[in-house]
Amino acid sequence: MIEQEQNETSDAIAERKRTSLIASLVTSLQPDEQIEANKSEEEKKGLSRRELIDEMLLFLVAGFETSSTALAWLIHLMSKHPRVQQKIKAELIGDNEKQDLSLDRLDSLVYLDCVIKEVLRFCPPADGTNRTLTADDRLPITGAQLYKGDIVGIPIVNLARDNRYWSIDPNLFYPERFLGEDKDHHPYALIPFGGGHRQCAGQDLARFELKVITARLMQHVTFGDGGPEINAGGYVHKLTILPKHVGVIIEFDQLSSIL
Ligand code: HEM
């Protein structure tokens, strides 16, 4: 893939850079790795071929498991909240008889945005992230001393469920919160994609994927609760935080529209 990008014409490269992450990274390849390798870390410019391959592998690992986990939670939560499913369906039908999903149409689905946000708040696929201090520091309120090299954990899931930052009970799954009382929540209370300049590089793609997939699913199927045992929820901590017991009944709404 790297060679394919390098063989493009300069016009094509300029164009592809705007839409392809890999094409964009390829333009950052070091012209002479040997020269860069002899420089200090601060002086080095661009990416070595090895670093570029590592980045590409990271996109696969960071991009696949997280998005599929979010989708699994979404399906489980929908099966537990038929009212929410009905509201998504009503918004999708609107005055849109052809049921098209153009970009404009997707943009207009405000309630669906709230649902996706609420799924990522209620059950974030990544429960936390961390940062390594580059200098000694103190916590502002407690004055606790921190040292260069310390690793600080940032508990994404705890922030999203902390009563201090939410007007409506954070232990409730309630997408409407983002249209009302919790519209202006603290920006760092909801960071399913992390924050700062090392935040998730694929978050726009992830939100878009989740929105398109959910809209398509909701146009055709309804998820029913498979019962207290097989659809009990709970979670397992693997690469991401996955739902443990998901067992839903899939009912096709309009068989004729998909045949
Ligand atoms: C629902 C889906 C996703 C979730 C919840 C998620 C979550 C996260 C989180 C929490 C981080 C750490 C951010 C930080 O420490 O501030 C991260 C980093 C990252 N994610 Fe995602 N992610 C998702 C989808 C994706 C996708 C689709 C891609 C790429 C195609 C991707 C690529 C990356 C990369 C490359 C990083 C590392 C960024 C860096 O260190 O500079 N992620 N993600």
TrEMBL record:
SUPFAM superfamilies: Cytochrome P450. InterPro entries: Cyt_P450, Cyt_P450_CS, Cyt_P450_E_grp-I, Cyt_P450_sf, Cytochrome_P450_monoxygenase. One of its GO terms (molecular function) is oxidoreductase activity, acting on paired donors, with incorporation or reduction of molecular oxygen. Gene3D superfamilies: Cytochrome P450 (1.10.630.10). Pfam families: p450. The keyword RNA-binding does not apply. Heme binds at C200. Transmembrane segments: none annotated. The keyword Chloroplast does not apply. Keywords: Heme, Iron, Metal-binding, Monooxygenase, Oxidoreductase. Its cofactor is heme. Belongs to the cytochrome P450 family. This is Cytochrome P450.
